[in-house]
Amino acid sequence: MPALFILIIVVGIVLLLLGLFVEAVKFLLWLGIVIVVVGIIAWLLRSITGRNRA
Predict the structure, then answer these.
(1) Is residue 39 part of a domain?
(2) Number of domains present in the structure of the chain
(3) Cα(53)–Cα(45) distance, integer angstroms
(4) Rounded distance, CA 45 to CA 8, Å?
């Protein structure tokens, strides 16, 4: 019976850590989308105003 309790505790800890990891990945996904949108807006502004320093 104690082995069953240990197994349940280990599975619970793994699921908790997996849930935290998924939340971190969701946050990084949204952060990446925001960075891409800001980059596209900056590129469009530079191309519209005609500033080509490259």
Answers:
(1) yes
(2) 1
(3) 13
(4) 56
